[in-house]
């Protein structure tokens, strides 16, 4: 997928059908709540969204992958690990990664990191709603906050 295809996909209508119920799993000693859901679209891409919430660190990460592409095509992180922001020496825990060229997924979206400080302190449901709005994804269901 190149940048032109990514931008077309981003603007196209997409949907997630059903409720979002994050499942509690163990990652070492840390509990993480996560789920993977299909993103329906009329362009023909097989997309999946992985939603993760770590209550210990309060980090929230939403990652989107596309079948037959080795790596993610976009990711939104809030209160997560620090990353360098594109064209600066600044690091931020709140940022967006997105496909810049056909090599981006293989490099785990290393280039084109954009700071998003307004995401700090938001809930995982808030982050999900923001992501869906910006990516033209209609959620047809309920988002159930992890307990």
What is this structure, in a nutshell?
This protein has two helices and 13 strands; from the N terminus they run H-E-E-E-E-E-E-E-E-E-E-E-H-E-E. The chain is mainly β.
Structure write-up:
- This protein is mainly beta.
- It has one domain (3-142).
- Helices cover 14% and strands 42% of the residues.
- The chain contains two helices and 13 strands.
- It has helices at residues 3-11, 124-134; strands spanning 14-17, 20-21, 23-27, 30-41, 47-54, 59-66, 72-78, 83-84, 91-92, 95-98, 114-115, 137-140, 143-144.
- The strands form three sheets. Strands 1, 3, 4, 5, 6, 7, 10, 11 and 12 form a nine-stranded mixed beta sheet that branches. It has a two-stranded parallel sheet with strand order 2-13.
- β8 (83-84) and β9 (91-92) form a beta hairpin.
- It is globular, with a radius of gyration of 15 Å.
Topology:
Blueprint: H1 3-11, E1 14-17, E2 20-21, E3 23-27, E4 30-41, E5 47-54, E6 59-66, E7 72-78, E8 83-84, E9 91-92, E10 95-98, E11 114-115, H2 124-134, E12 137-140, E13 143-144
Parallel strand pairs: 1-12, 2-13
Antiparallel strand pairs: 1-4, 3-4, 4-5, 5-6, 6-7, 7-10, 8-9, 10-11
